[in-house]
Amino acid sequence: MKANKEIPVKKNEKYTVKVEDLTHEGMGVAKIEGYPLFIENALPGEEMEVKIHKTGKSFGFAKAMKRLTSSQNRVELQDENYTRVGITPLQHMSYPAQLDFKRQQVRNVMQRIAKLPEVPVFETIGMAEPWGYRNKAQIPVRKIDDKLTTGFFRKNSHDVIPMENFKIQDPKIDKAILVVRDIMREFNVKPYNEGPNTGNLRHIIVRRGYYTGEMMIILVTRTPKLFPTSKILPAITEALPEVVSIVQNVNPTRTNTIMGDENIVLWGRDNYRDSLLGNTFEISARSFYQVNPTQTEKLYQTVLDYAELTGEETVIDAYCGIGTISLSLAKAAKQVYGIEMIEAAVENAKNNAEINEIDNVTFETGLAEEVMLQWSDEDMKADLVVVDPPRKGLEPSFIEAVVKMQPTKMIYVSCNPATLARDLALLNEGGYSVEKIQPVDLFPQTHHVESVTLLVKK
Ligand code: SAH
């Protein structure tokens, strides 16, 4: 960049650039006099005419106007809308290139952040058909053209773009959303109006068990009162025979968070079922459950393979959710201890152990970092610690507790390469060697990178 830090581009001007790289969110990066421009729908190697739409001090954003050359990794867009709403930011990239991109993300952070460039990062395990995989949809409801309408938010905005086919969701879920939408229209339910915080129906959430076909419908409303339920509920269950549970979730607040704290079971059970690696799971409205079931099985199988259990081991599964990994491990271990902070998920987990007649597993409600610290203070010993934390990764106190407990092995399931690399560096310093990393594609067409890492006590 110029010494006086003058920005070398002007807003609304057009320039011809060559894309050099990709950000971790999958945006193309081109430079003008060293000034980086981020461009949607742009792949490395491509030359294009772009128009500047935003300039910051050290980088800007540009829109691709005309592509002059195309990358061999480019595939045709499924739909322009999908770029505008941002649910499939990699839809213009061929699937093999997406898998490669994700592997490269992990390699980059292992080099840049963890400073462990020699750790093997394997080829990303992908899907045969990388569309229609999501088992859960959370769809905003708004009034558009005077009608209750479902769709998705335009990127960085609160405007809903009407959409009926979401392409990455189970098509049966897409269909269910339209059925529920039409029933809501028929009975004059008021769509939520975000500005003044008026109206009622905010979101329609549909979750469906891949192996069971059981469906849960969650109607997120602003107020506890709801429509003529006596008419709406039979209409839904008649039109959608797979439905086993209809839950109302009340979210009165002005917030981007989709669900509120209050759940009211309107019809049927308070859970739906699915199975993974032969175990059956009950899942309640508030519980986390991986969104891509067939890839989740490959992820868990990788965990099992890395664990190499003989039946003699004591295992801790931290951030265990409804116990999906815990129960898969329990069949091959002596004893498994799960830790999870959401009470409802722990209840699901305990019940799931019972349903599957697994009795060598116990679940503890609490913060993983606190429970681990307590257990290590009590001199509890474990042979294997499995973690599957949210995007922010592990707390330093959790890592301290692991180092104190000295398990022989650790397996780190991560949904964020940056925090993974940060934590692996700390664990490496604490006496754990990072053996190998297996990325698994849980979120095709998006930039999200999931991986399994094996660590062994030095
Ligand atoms: N292993 C499970 C869940 C992974 S998602 C599965 O594969 O399905 C991460 C889980 O960690 C969520 O259930 C979340 O509620 C829980 N969680 C998040 N922060 C936590 C913390 N500090 N302590 C314990 N659990 C936590």
UniProtKB/TrEMBL annotation:
The active site is at 415, 415 (nucleophile). SUPFAM superfamilies: Nucleic acid-binding proteins, S-adenosyl-L-methionine-dependent methyltransferases. Pfam families: TRAM, tRNA_U5-meth_tr. GO terms for biological process: rRNA base methylation. The keyword S-adenosyl-L-methionine applies. This is RNA methyltransferase. Keywords: Methyltransferase, S-adenosyl-L-methionine, Transferase. It comes from Carnobacterium divergens DSM 20623. Belongs to the class I-like SAM-binding methyltransferase superfamily. RNA M5U methyltransferase family. NCBIfam families: rumA (TIGR00479). PANTHER family: RNA M5U METHYLTRANSFERASE, TRNA (URACIL(54)-C(5))-METHYLTRANSFERASE. InterPro entries: MeTrfase_TrmA_AS (IPR030390), MeTrfase_TrmA_CS (IPR030391), NA-bd_OB-fold (IPR012340), SAM-dependent_MTases_sf (IPR029063), TRAM_dom (IPR002792), U5_MeTrfase_fam (IPR010280). GO terms for molecular function: rRNA (uridine-C5-)-methyltransferase activity. S-adenosyl-L-methionine binds at residues 290, 319, 340, 388. Residues 8-66 form the TRAM domain.
